[in-house]
Amino acid sequence: MGSGRDGRPASYTKKNFSLEKLKLSSMKDDLTVLRHMWFGSKKGDDHAARLESFYGPQAAAYDAFRSRFLWGRRPMLAAVAARLAERSNLIWVDLGGGTGENVDMMADYIDLAKFKSIYVVDLCHSLCEVAKKKAKAKGWKNVQVVEADACQFAPPEGTATLITFSYSLTMIPPFHNVIDQACSYLSQDGLVGVADFYVSGKYDLPLRQMPWSRRFFWRSIFDIDNIDIGPERRAYLEQKLERVWEQNTQGSIPYVPWLRAPYYVWIGRLPSVGHALHEERVERPPMFPPTFLYTQSWEDPEPDMEVMEINPKDTVLTLTSGGCNALNLLVQGAGQVVSVDCNPAQSALLELKKVAIQQLEFEDVWQLFGEGVHPRIEELYEKKLAPFLSQTSHNFWSKRLWYFQHGLYYQGGMGKLCWVLQCLAVVLGLGKTVKRLANAPTMEEQRRLWDSNMLIHFVKNGPKPLVWLFVKFVSLVLFNKAVLWFGGGVPGKQYALIKADGIPIENYIARTMDGVAENSHVRKQNYFYYNCLTGKFLRDNCPTYLREAAFATLKSGVVDNLTVSTNFFMEELKARTYTKVILMDHVDWLDMPVANELAECLAKQVAPGGIVIWRSASLSPPYAELIQKAGFDVRCIRRATQGYMDRVNMYSSFYMARRKGAKKDN
């Protein structure tokens, strides 16, 4: 065996020389591709001519370069192959299939013999010629290369099991037409796979979202090559099809350091048919606003769970309010939860949350109810939510999808009140203070901001006559009965209970706010008031159902154990036996004769040993004695006179009653 000049075997030298020659050839091909990408002609009288002028000169070098650029092809092919692995006699249409490289790669994930027919469709003559040579060389008997317009092509069989767009959808100008055409022959159990470059919309899903600078840069760069990577194509895909799976990421570019081009992989199918929910027909009580009062539940669930002894055998009745606590009961292990409200809008809100958990993925639910906004609410509603809503809820939401465009948590009675208060804070020069208070990193910093605020300092330490005038003015404007009812859900009877304790309403509210500011860290633990101050929740500071692990529990089927009822509380209480009942502050709203009737009904419908809890704006609500006489051991868990109540801190007392003795006969 001979040796080279450096002493190495001649065979090694020849092999090394061949590798170097291959590298030089590959680099030459890459430079050819790059030259035509950046400086090549893209002219022509029609789209076919423009494609030919662009791809023709680089067709022979196309595959090698794209294998280090089009990173989404393999994950897309792997994803669809995994979903088709158990099937046979498949028909695959690869639209914009170019050189047929996708077919070659698909062989790594699924036996090509499973496909009865594979159609590689492209409008560029030069690419089709490469694909034909490849099919012949590979011996693909079931592959047909079709030089045709994807907007007009349909397989001879009339249907396709799989349709793919591999970095082609962004290069088809009439994308509505090609998607419509593809959907027209997609089989009912078929899949559409897309891999392509993209930029997000301004308000897109979190996993797609990009800053303005990145959206502008990449869209303008790809536009040079007549490639439109805007969000419209995927948005239209998701209007016509139901998303099964997607991935949003980025990949490197040959010879371009640091920059990584964004791309996505998307798998979809024809929309599935839903089912209607049971319809409850209850008229809205007089004087109710035409929407909900509360967008979230305004009772802290943590003290509830400390005394409720929730277990899988429980059937729990609760007021709906914002619905957060009803969902929390399921997460905590309750077997069945019945959530009732006489306001159809509150039922519509909880029903939407339930259906969203059943039909959507976590990020969509987070956008809807964590951020309170969703850029695709109309699409989601039409395709995934409306088919599962009752008619009453559909009638409500179909006219109010803009809630999720303007911010859900600034809607409804309390939402509007929070918005007005935020605007007032800005007018008074306190806008930045509110933001700092909401995002104070520590409890100590929060207290400092609260106590050092000019307005708070004035109320606590200013001249008493001026403070009295100021407080009375604010009370007249913001804390009158109309605002308290329509903005805070405080009815006249509850207002009277507060007055009966000898507490002016302005003092009651000041006690609430001051107690929260001094005792509860808003940024880290008090999602109630963080939401009021910012109009959204945080991932680590939100109701239980918006935490990813709890969401997964609910979505696994647990949420199916929730019954949403539009009804009067007493009627729903009479419908079945309960082990636990949450009255919230409902009894504050009732006349004493009705409260007595409710107490008697509780005695009949709550199982022996069952627990009833409630909160009251009164330090000693008069109906507590009625519940005790009905056969319950009643005790007050806490009163506001003892100090800070809980994260809401809005009530004067918190009670628990346990049913004793044998259940009474009807």
How do you describe this structure in short?
By secondary structure, the protein is of the alpha/beta class. Helices cover 45% and strands 17% of the residues.
Return the structural class: alpha/beta
Largest sheet: 7 strands, mixed
Task: Indicate the overall shape.
Answer: elongated
Radius of gyration: 33 Å
Kindly describe this structure.
With 666 residues, the chain is α/β, with parallel strands linked by helices. Among the domains are: 1-39; 58-269, Rossmann fold (3-Layer(aba) Sandwich); 413-534, no CATH class. The chain is built from 29 helices and 14 strands. A seven-stranded mixed beta sheet has the order 3-2-1-4-5-7-6. Helix 7 (175-185) packs parallel to helix 9 (232-240). The chain is elongated and about 90 Å long.
Strands, helices and their partners?
Elements: H1 10-38, H2 47-55, H3 62-66, H4 73-84, E1 90-95, H5 101-106, E2 115-122, H6 125-138, E3 143-147, E4 160-166, H7 175-185, E5 186-197, H8 212-223, H9 232-240, E6 242-253, E7 256-269, H10 301-308, E8 315-319, H11 324-331, E9 336-341, H12 344-359, H13 362-371, H14 377-385, H15 391-397, H16 403-406, H17 412-427, H18 431-438, H19 443-452, H20 454-461, H21 464-478, H22 481-488, H23 492-500, H24 505-519, H25 527-534, H26 548-555, E10 562-566, H27 569-573, E11 578-582, H28 592-605, E12 606-616, H29 623-629, E13 632-639, E14 653-659
Parallel strand pairs: 1-2, 1-4, 2-3, 4-5, 8-9, 8-11, 9-10, 11-12
Antiparallel strand pairs: 5-7, 6-7, 12-14, 13-14
